[in-house]
Amino acid sequence: MIEYIIDEDYESVRVDRFLRKHLKNINLSEIYKMLRKGKIKVNNKKISQDYRLVLGDIIFIFLPETFKEQNEEKFIEISQIRKEKLKQMIVFENDNLFVINKPLGDVVHKGSGHDISLLEEFRSYYSNNNINFVNRIDKLTSGLVIGAKNIKTAREVAKEIQAGNIVKKYYILVNGKIEKDNFILENYLKKDEERVIVSDIEKEGYKKSITYFKKIKEYDKYTLLEAELKTGRTHQLRAQLNHLGNNIVGDTKYGKNEKEDIMYLFSYYLKIDLYNLEIKLEIPVFFNKNNI
């Protein structure tokens, strides 16, 4: 039997799309047949081909483990210099878990023009194809990302994220002034093809999204915020702040006329009570407004 744990990268993706990507040597009609006969289950339950995956879902595929081994990608070659850079990213690790401080520009998962990502690099670094990143941040976002070294830990962390038991905080620099010292943004988000759509009222297909904000410092044209996610939707901070009218500096997707090659969004704080783990990073030097 083969198991896959669903991370944020595949949240809301149709199960048949996921299976086509991971079972490349099995044609689609055979995949549909396996779904109908219960040879592929999610959380030990039969599902239809249009089922949309949820963070923390476990896909069970009743095929020999050797099938997975035959279809797994080989470890990529990484130079000694790159190995040292990967090592420097690690801010915490034990036998089951590791946390990295992702630099600007690196991608967590491949796609969108990137054939190699940190996932492939760290699988090679650890010589472990069970490595998975349970949360993700965008290419131009930097900061803390959680990595699991085995399926059991990936499952545990995903469930903790789903239950709202993991605390994640960000430093954000936004355009414009914000008067309130503390405020909450609560609205509804829906993933579109290119970006996330925000609604102030509940609608079908939209997910409730909540973020707590605290003002740290005010500049002439900018405001430095701390944000604590209570939900973890795709592009939640970027979409919510743009909807507010204070888009993130350097956000070329949601911002207007942004030309920065740096997005001022940094994941600096992580707390996982399940593992008695707390990590807090200093604000990066590029947040100094003299650099803009």
TrEMBL record:
Domain named RNA-binding S4: residues: 13-72
Cited SUPFAM superfamilies: Alpha-L RNA-binding motif, Pseudouridine synthase
Superkingdom of the organism of origin: Bacteria
Keywords, ordered alphabetically: Isomerase, RNA-binding
Gene Ontology biological process terms in this record: enzyme-directed rRNA pseudouridine synthesis
UniProt xrefs under InterPro entries: PsdUridine_synth_cat_dom_sf, PsdUridine_synth_RluA-like_CS, PsdUridine_synth_RsuA/RluA, RluA_PseudoU_synthase, S4_RNA-bd, S4_RNA-bd_sf
CDD domains: PseudoU_synth_RluA_like, S4
GO-annotated molecular function: RNA binding; rRNA pseudouridine synthase activity
Designated name of the protein: RluA family pseudouridine synthase
